Amino acid sequence: MTNESNPESLLEVTELKTYFKSRGKAHAPFAKIKSGYVKAVDNVSLVVRRRETVGIVGESGCGKTTLARTIVGLTKSTGGSIKLNGKELLAPKSNQKERFKHAQIVFQDYESSLDPRMKIIDTLNEPLIELTQLSSDDRRRKVTEVIQAVGLAEDFLHRLPKQLSGGQKQRVSIARALVTEPKLVILDEPTSALDASVQAQILNLLIELQERYSISYLIITHNIAVAEYLADRIYVMYAGKIVEQGPAKSIISEPRHPYTLALIASAPIANPRHKTMLDVELRGEVPSVVDPPAGCRFHPRCPYAETICGVEEPRLEQLAPKHTVACHFVEKTKR
Amino acid sequence: MPPAKYTHGRVLYKGTDLVKLDREQIRLFRGTEIAMIFQEPMSSLNPTKKIHTQIEEAISVREERAKGLGEPGKDHGTDDPGRMKEVISVLNKVLIPDPEEVANRYPFELSGGMRQRVMIAMSLAQRPSLLIADEPTTALDVTTQAQVLKLMRNLMDDAKTSILLITHDLAVASQVADTIAVMYGGEVVEETDVLELFSEPLHPYTQGLLSCVPTAPKEVSRLKPIRGNVPDLRLAIAGCKFASRCPFAMERCNKEKPKLSSVKEKHRVACHLYDK
Questions:
Q1: Does residue B165 carry a pLDDT above 90?
Q2: Can you give the pTM of this predicted structure?
Q3: A7 pLDDT more than 80
Q4: ipTM of the complex as predicted
Q5: Which residues of A touch B178 (CB under 8 A)?
């Protein structure tokens, strides 16, 4: 890794927008979906520093997976800027191979992210062939190194995905992401399909790998406990927008956006003495991003909402040196 | 052998052994005595019928059984205004907004959280004494999960219905349950009060499971995964099924199967470590 001591950010996303055209009636004739744009990611800005782990938390439909896919180039952005290592990725002539080499992703569904007909060795070799100039001997060495780094024996290289358990497949997916020595690895719900003890193994493996390869993680999860365990900083997303951002500790213990408050309280804690989960007073569900509420997108569900919330969209404002919140009435959530 | 066959044991429900009943007899227990909700509400609802029709069906089953008429005929769920009123009232109880409108929708027009609420409304309409909820919120988001579990708990408290919640999520269990039974390899290995289970887990599997659940940042406490994998249930294991993964396994554990027995008041565990 270069510039290990460089304090500047590795990934800088500025006012990123990813809109999809909603086909309205043709898509779902009976459902009440208006045609227009699905603003899955709407003016999102975020920073990931070198060797940092950043969490993005939010519920399904909030746009967190679209954000991840847009950063690695699997989904086209509508506007904004993504800089990796200081280089603009959305410029017309930007080198996409460099992008894929340095920003990799691990998907939630390991079943569909591995080609069932490809041996593990071929799955791991493919990015090296496509994205690097390594000789076949070097490739072999690299592939052997990563498979061992993710805790699997070398003979796994000659197996097919169907011969592996869920946890082993996710280890292979992580190896596949690491093989090109990326600087940034995006983890999209990396453990939500795994059971508790396998999840714990994978989370610990991710920590080891980060120390070994000096990588930055952007972890996308709906699981607050996982975000708390891994992340240094957390961004909270709601209906395509970032509503709060700060050090993981502050977000978990002193959340200030009413949505974060509800989200943290709803997340079950494995402690029967703290039954926060059943005290949550939250109405309704996550709104559609086709026709999101005007003003603050959370206002129809918010217990603190006043007239202005339905009219004017709150901006992200600094609350503490490293803690920003987008809420008109942030003083109401002070404890 | 059929896909699943009952071999021995009893299932006592209000004093009746359910496994001794034939298909027709046990039918009368379903819904009005023991109701069940599943993980995936979409596949438990009929996609071709409106919500009100499906809840009316549940109500008519309850009414016919109360009259002692056995099972209702095919024409249940007709436009009985009394039943429609009850449909709206149960939908109201599960906090569905605009119940009149929702009653006229099809399941595909509802979100996952709404569908699960409809399932709860349907079981509520049958007024069961026991509700079996199999991973009822696993497919839902956390805020919706909190709403649904809170609702389930409050409604069942009001109706004095017992809940058997099946979940893989220890955190959910800790928030909702009074008593927890931990299963491993097809058997209950520990059973006790929720507070005791979390403060003083006895079975090494329970201890392992608890140390797998993240509760603090990595710098504060590192997770300790259980080594190995769940055993293949097709293999005959003579001793304790957890022995191969257990950090405290003794020679005896591989030979002799531990029995679930009380080690103290209201705390049962199946482990040789606690043999007297």
A1: yes
A2: 0.86
A3: no
A4: 0.80
A5: none
Q: Which of A32, A196, A230 comes nearest B170 by C-beta?
A: A196
Min Cα separation B100/chain A (Å): 17
Alpha helices in A179-314 (DSSP H): 196-213, 224-230, 248-253, 258-266
A220 within some domain? yes
Residue A64, classed as helix, strand or coil, is: helix
Give the pLDDT confidence of A20-32 residue by residue, as tens digits.
887 654 444 455 5
How many angstroms separate the most distant Cα atoms in chain B?
69
Q: Which of B150, B198, B212 sits opposite A197 (nearest CB)?
A: B212
Q: How far is A197 from chain B (nearest CA, A)?
A: 5
CATH 3.40.50.300 residue ranges of chain B are 31-159
Question: What are the chain B neighbours of A277 within 8 Å (beta carbons)?
Answer: 146, 149-150, 172, 175-176
Distance from CA of B7 to the nearest CA of A (A): 29
Locate A203 and state its tokens: 């989370």
Chain B residues whose CB is inside 8 A of the A60 CB are 141
Q: Which CATH number fits domain B31-159: 3.40.50.300, 3.30.420.10, 3.40.50.720, 3.50.50.60?
A: 3.40.50.300
Is residue A32 within 8 Å of A90, Cβ to Cβ?
no
- Nearest neighbour of A229 by CB, restricted to B211, B218, B224: B218
pLDDT at A329 over 60: yes
Report pLDDT for B227.
87
User: Taking CB atoms and an 8 Å limit, are A225 and B106 in contact across chains?
Assistant: no
Would you say A196 and B212 are in contact if contact means Cβ atoms under 8 Å apart? yes
Residues A170-186 pLDDT 10s: 999 999 999 999 999 99
On whether residue A121 sits in a domain, the answer given is no
What is the span of the domain harbouring residue A213? 9-114+178-333
Which residues have CB under 8 Å from B7's CB, separation 6+? none
**B243, two tokens:** 């022995």
Are A38 and A4 in contact by the 8 Å Cβ rule? The answer is no
Which CATH number belongs to the domain containing residue A28 in this structure?
A: 3.40.50.300
**pLDDT for A3:** 36
The token duo for A41 is 């990611």
- Long-range Cβ contact pairs of B163-166 (< 8 A, separation 24 or more): B163/B130, B163/B131, B163/B132, B163/B133, B164/B130, B164/B131, B164/B132, B164/B133, B165/B133, B165/B136, B166/B132, B166/B133, B166/B134, B166/B135
Angle A114-A120-A121 from CA coordinates, rounded to 5°: 135
Q: Mapped to the 3 state alphabet, what secondary structure does B22-68 carry? A: CHHHHHCCECCCEEEECCCHHHHCCCCCCHHHHHHHHHHHHHHHHCC
Chain B nearest-CA distance from A81, in A, is 30
**Confidence grade of residue A194 (pLDDT, cut at 50, 70, 90):** confident
Total domains in chain A come to 1
- Antiparallel, parallel or unpaired: β B130-134 and B162-166: parallel
Residue A217 lies in a domain: yes
